[in-house]
Amino acid sequence: MAKILVVDDERNIRKVLSNYLRKEGFTVETARNYEEAVDKAAAVNFDLVLTDMRLPGQSGLDLLKWLKRKRPSLPVLVITAYGSIDNAVEVMKNGASNYLTKPVDMDEMLVIIQHTLLKEQVLPEAAAGEEGEHFGIIGGSPAINEVIATIKVVAVSRANILISGESGTGKELVAGAIHSASQRRDAPFIALNCAAVPVDLIENELFGHEKGAFTGAVSRESGKVEMAASGTLFLDEIGEMSVAMQIKLLRFIQERVFYRISGREQLASDCRIIAATNRDLEVEVKKGTFREDLFYRLNVIQIKVPALRERKEDIPALAHYFLNKYAGENKKFIRGIEQAALEALTVYEWPGNIRELENIIERAVVLSRLDIIVLDDLPRKMQNNYSESRGENKSAEDQHLAGLIGMPLAELERIAVLKALKAENWNQTRAAARLCITRRQLRTKMEKYQLL
Question: Are residues 294 and 332 in the same domain?
């Protein structure tokens, strides 16, 4: 289990944090100040450091800078005082993996720690100029680990590969991983979506044409087969290819030669073929819509990419990956996902798979008004699904609403304020944002209803 160093000058806080983390299975050591932390970090190979910003003498920021000089890849989480946005920005600029605000929410802290450690394990090391062990595929579930293991085995072969899986599961990512792990990695990886090209143009896309081959052909153009020579040709949605075009593709796979449209010169290409489909091609063969001989040529090795609902333990890592991506693109500072929202993501069945998850997270980032994604940032269907999974059915909600009818307006306002405060763990700034009012207005209402 991961080793964590907890740094705080207050004995009670060190005790609470370390006891909680030990109960969650982590190995924990503690330090009271900068000097103790430096000594322990120099002696022990920690997997993560959790430090308070304010320490006696040299600060948590000083410790962060020292750690990043000595071990740049070591994840560091910094605890800051609530509302210290400047401090939060400063520590992130200096390499902190994330930050927490006081009072620390233990569940939120655990999610951030787990995500940070998981991210260190699953993200590719391409930034260091080396092939990442997981080829950029995020996750550590048994289902995705089986795919990764298969990639490592088949990448070194020359065999054609058929990748199957539902739409949005990441079939092109798997194809790219096979190419990157193969001896062809320095040659082109060329992709063609067979479903996106009109039937009468797909031959031109594959094999190219000579000048004057048809109206508008003012010059010779190479096709994807020629462009992928010595590399990899990825044919996505191969099941959408017409039977007539399947015959021409089969001939190329068998002979490894082809002609451009209107061309007389026979050309060769030794590109590796990786095809992908969201259909059951064996069923399509029986229906007569896919050639049996082409199926067997492509299906030398088959890799089935699991649906997201079959690898739900990977959802937190994927969600945080997309969160970081879109928070950066939208220039927003969002440090994580609250536990309830993460649970809602996990219990959802994801008919659109990873593509749908990416869309949902991007939407949440754009709509979020806080520094953390909350349940209300997710689509209503996901909120309802989460409520149903917890046994909170609609009839109970209707009964609750019915009980509010006839109440004085002031009492309804008091209930709304109280619910917002409870939902945000009595964090006034977040509760005010939830109610669409200012923090000063919220405090006025709290005084009015004796909630201070």
Answer: no
Compute the distance between CA of residue 310 and CA of residue 234 in angstroms, rounded to an integer: 25
Q: What is the pTM of this model?
A: 0.61
- For residue 70, being part of any structural domain is answered with yes
Integer Cα distance of 219 and 212 in angstroms: 7
Give CA–CA dist 189/236, Å, rounded: 13
CATH number at residue 416: 1.10.10.60
Contact 333, 370 (CB under 8 A): no
Domain count, the chain: 4
User: Going edge to edge, which strands form the sheet with 27-31?
Assistant: 27-31, 3-7, 48-52, 76-80, 98-101
Query: What is the per-residue pLDDT across 189-245, written as a single tens digit (0 to 9) for each?
Result: 999 999 999 988 999 999 999 998 888 888 999 999 999 999 999 999 999 999 999
Q: Mean pLDDT throughout 366-391?
A: 88
Who has greater pLDDT, 356 or 413? 356
Residue-number span of the structural domain to which 370 is assigned: 310-392
Give the range with max mean pLDDT: 3-17, 84-98, 387-401, 416-430.
3-17
CATH code of 366's domain:
1.10.8.60
pLDDT of residue 239: 96
For residue 329, give both structure tokens: 């693109």
Burial zone of 405 (CB within 10 Å; 0-12 exposed, 13-18 middle, 19+ buried)? exposed
Tell me the C-alpha distance between 98 and 404, whole Å.
41
- CA distance linking residue 362 with residue 319, whole number of Å: 10
Q: What are phi and psi of 329, to 5 degrees?
A: -65, -35
**Sequence-separated (6 or more) residues with CB below 8 Å from residue 358:** 322
Residue 125: predicted pLDDT: 35
* Calpha distance 423→327 (Å, rounded): 24
- Domain assignment present for residue 33? The answer is yes
362 within a domain of the structure (yes/no): yes
Residue 272 belongs to some domain of the structure: yes
Query: Are residues 227 and 302 both part of a single domain?
Result: yes
